[in-house]
Amino acid sequence: MITAENISKSFGKLKVLNSISVSCDKGETISLIGPNSSGKTTLIKCLLGMVIPDSGKILFDNENISRSWQYRDRIGYMPQIGRYPENMTIGEVFDMLLDLRKKKENETDRELVHSFGLDAILNKRMRTLSGGTRQKVSASIAFLFHPQVLILDEPTAGLDPVASEALKEKIRKEKEKGRLILITSHILSDLDDLVTRVIYIQEGNVLFHKSISQLRSDTGEEKLSRAIAAVMKNNQPLNSVS
Amino acid sequence: MIKIIRYVMADILRSRIIFVYTIFLLAISLSIFNLEDNPSKGLLSMLNIILIIVPLVSLIFSTIYMYNSAEFIELLLSQPVRRAQLLLSIYAGVCFSLLVAFTIGIALPIIIMVGTTTAYMMTAAGLVLTAVFVAMAVLGSVVTRDKAKGIGIAIMLWLYFSLFYDSFLLLIMFQFSDYPLEKPMIALCSLNPVDLARIFILLSMDISALMGYTGALFSEFFGTSKGTFYVAGVMSLWIFFPLFFAVRRFKRKDL
Questions:
Q1: What DSSP state is assigned to residue A89?
Q2: Which long-range contacts (CB under 8 A, 24 or more apart) does B34-42 make?
Q3: Which of A59, A76, A217, B232 could form a disulfide with A3 if both were Cys (CB 3.0 to 4.6 A apart)?
């Protein structure tokens, strides 16, 4: 469904993505992991067209995204740090997105809005919200339009356990509907049981792209976090690509 | 596109700065016309407001607005929205709000109180200058990411077009006073929208006789309908090119 071919990106002298190629298919739940500043968010922003890669191409449903914008209709994106127009209320932000996507009220998926209790504070202005509430708004927006592809950048960071559980439940439901879900995270334990594949990125290179079962059999570890840790240890120094 | 323009304008109206600008302009025009007995003299004072205050406010207000809507831009670009369309909609929204403020604050008073050809020309010049300087502000804020730098660029642009460029022209005129400079002067004035607007308005005030041979040539060139088309054409280019480069840059910008 999404194929990235030889994506490279530098910010000034800093090479963030080093000719990365990955492909993701429908129905998969992929965890994109790697240490801080390994290029996870940059890769995701390339998929969304918010960062323009220096070279390489990205195909969405076999269609090059470099000159296209309609494909974003099928993506729900939850940013790592949600930034919103400060003097709009939560309700106005929702209505604006609805209006821009030309969707009707009954075509939206408000399940997360309800389970996060956001419908009680729809007339609060964005600048008055705490970090956690902003995250809830971001998550609700990502799921609002029944997208085929969900891109969640550090979804559970900053959420309290109740909200985090609600979000997890929602991701599980969407997974069953056969959506492609891309999650970046460096904390693994949260989403262990949802993930079907793991892409490990370090310093702008894909170190491995494996299914969970393969990863488990390769390392002999049951828990994902320990399996990753085992791979990281064995891969020292980290330059072999499997 | 209309939708985004509507959201931009709703946002601008909520900040109330635009109301303050409107009332400020209205206060200036009313006080000038009430102090002067002769409306033509009043027009001359208004000319300076149009050529100095309007570009300054257009530049600074639009630059600050562009930087403050960084969140709005970021949110909309993760949605199915075209980049060029987003930038042009923001331009249109800011520009339209400032045009409304100018119309209420200056255009209506001078048309009602004076109503001569010059009054209409001044209105046209003010509207066009607003559009030109908002376009420049959009370009400036797309080019740099840093807000302080962006506002610095806006102020430098204003200083350049309202002060430095004129001193530069004077310097050329003195240095090359032995040569016939009238025709090159028309070309050089086209490189500054403020100068172009000034000449265009002054010529309609019948004081070109005071400007000697150059004034005669200017009035011969700008006074005709061909001259009016020329000014309109050059001004459109002054709107088009900054926007064109801004869109081109914005399409490749990382957020």
A1: B
A2: B39/B113, B39/B114, B40/B114, B40/B116, B40/B118, B40/B205, B42/B113, B42/B114
A3: A59
Is the CB of residue A154 less than 8 Å from the CB of residue A185?
Answer: yes
ipTM above 0.90, yes or no: no
State the count of interchain CB pairs (< 8 A) between A and B.
Answer: 59
Q: Which two tokens stand for residue B31?
A: 């006080």
B142 min Cα distance to partner chain A (Å): 15
Element (H, E) at A226: helix A224-234
Q: Are A143 and A175 in contact (CB under 8 A)?
A: no
A70 neighbourhood in chain B, CB within 8 Å? 80
Q: DSSP for B141-210?
A: HHH-S-HHHHHHHHHHHHHIIIIIHHHHHHHHHHHTTTS--HHHHHHHHTT-HHHHHHHHHHHHTT-GGG
CB contact A79 to B (< 8 Å): yes
Residue B80 and residue A71: Cβ atoms within 8 Å? yes
pLDDT digits (tens), chain A, 242 positions: 899 999 999 998 899 999 999 999 888 999 888 888 888 999 999 999 999 999 999 999 988 998 888 999 999 999 988 889 888 899 999 999 999 998 888 888 999 999 999 999 999 999 999 999 999 999 999 999 999 999 999 888 888 999 999 999 999 999 999 999 999 876 666 677 788 888 888 888 888 888 888 888 887 777 777 777 777 776 654 444 44
Asked whether the beta carbons of residue B78 and residue A70 sit closer than 8 angstroms, the reply is no
